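Review session, final week

We close the course with one last complete record, chosen because it touches almost every idea we covered. It is Methyltransferase, TIGR04325 family, a protein from Bosea vaviloviae with 291 residues. Go through it on your own first, then we will talk.
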Amino acid sequence: MGELRRRHTPLSVARWASRRAIRALSTWPGIRQVHYALHRWEFLAGRNDSGYSGVFSSVEEAARSAPTVVTGYDQAGMADLDVYRHANGEFKPMPPTEYPALFWLRPAIQEGARRLFDLGGYVGHVYYQYCGYLDLPDEFSWTIYDVPHVTEAGERIAQERGAKHLRFTNNVAAIGEADIVFAAGSLQYLEEGFLHQALREANKRPPHLIIHRTALHPTRSFVTLQSINQRSGRIAFCPYTVAHRERFIEGLQALGYEQIDAWTKQRPIEVPLRPECYVDTYSGLYFRLRT
């Protein structure tokens, strides 16, 4: 579920420029069809890494539209920590866009939080990147919830790296044991309302919610299909949920949470031929449980 980085090359920049030119002419007769045909070819061929196609009413409908039977992250080849590392094995520097989440995570731990639930935390890349900036107590537990293929790979990597704080689970009910819920770049790979439902059914609501790198739209919610190039060269297709921002926030407020902060990350979502679905930035939010 972790967010894979875009790779920009002269060829990709040229493709981007050509697509912009076609969009500018999209009102001309026949150009709209050319735009869609060009996009669809690139999307199916994996030429447009992290591209999007189509708008659907549900995750199931989006999955059925995929050109392959296997979709999503619960498959071999999708659990790859190397996308976050240099060729020498060292982690790439933490990008500046991570600092707002770190800003709120650090004091929560200093105030006594000892159990973090990393919702869709992939194989632990946030833990590995953040550890150099956090003074985690020995008893601190960082539990990652993800799909089985990913958690199995995460457990192997954690053992190899001696990551003593890391735990992995496929049981979302463990959210009720946490002091902090952390969701970074993961909610878009789940049904809209997944987090709200998990919190509603939890035996205890965690005091801190840190939502980071999350796709939210100002006026609508929808599901699209995302293409991702795996390092193996295969192409994966994932249903991708974009939630209605106001409904998302109000749903958490109804569960007793107060919004403390908000921030953005510059990264657009553009579904060809659906301008009403355009999103210019990803969202970050910090909530505390009202006492």
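Two points worth writing down before the exam:
Residues 10-24 form the longest helix (15 residues).
The two ends are 32 Å apart (CA to CA).
Good luck, everyone.
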